[in-house]
Amino acid sequence: MKLPLFPLNTVLFPGCRLDLQIFEARYLDMIGRCMKQGVGFGVVSIVSGHEVGEAPKSVSQIGCEAQIRDWQQLPNGLLGIRVEGGRRFRVERSEVQDDLLLEADVTWLEEMPDQPLTEEHDDLAALLGALSLHPMVATLEMGGEVNGQQELACQLAYLLPFEREQKQVLLEMDDPSVRLARIQVLLEQLQGEMLA
């Protein structure tokens, strides 16, 4: 399947929301086409290169579909859109179009069946609840109650202040319980750094 890509200095996760300001012609055209056709686009993390201007030199091979949930003209005159992460995908092949838009052949990744939360996840669920009170998280209408390990893992991986490379590793994990275990390790490392 062909998918237009939006390379960013961030990692989008399934079920998570991201607000974007669109000003480059290639992305305005892409968003217009996506909205007319009722389809999404792919968000991939930039490995080397920049968000603006030329197409980046390299992007991660695993990304997340972005589905447009809302749009508005911002006070600065730019188009503002809110997207929500959908399915994860693998980039099989990509090429830069004439308008510098990156387009890729992608394969959708299979998701494992979600598992219910257990007592061992209580602390992580409480952490997500606390994060939901932060004004920036509240604006995105994220956090609070979650329905399983997948949702908890994706929201924590997205919202916590991990390095982009760490977030990318978390996105590439197929098993939500493994992702949650890795988040626990990263949290302990963060706490260690804060105490040092």
Please characterize this protein's 3D structure.
The chain is of the alpha+beta class and 196 residues long. It has two domains: 2-108, LON domain-like (Archaeosine Trna-guanine Transglycosylase, Chain: A, domain 4), CATH 2.30.130; 119-195, Methane Monooxygenase Hydroxylase, Chain G, domain 1. The chain is built from six helices and seven strands; from the N terminus they run ββαβββββααααα. Strands 1-3-5-6-7 form a five-stranded mixed beta barrel. Helix 2 packs across helix 4 (149-159) and helix 4 packs parallel to helix 6. The longest helix has 20 residues, at 176-195. The chain is globular and about 50 Å long. The N and C termini lie far apart (48 Å). The relative contact order is 0.18. The model has no long low-confidence stretch (mean pLDDT 93).
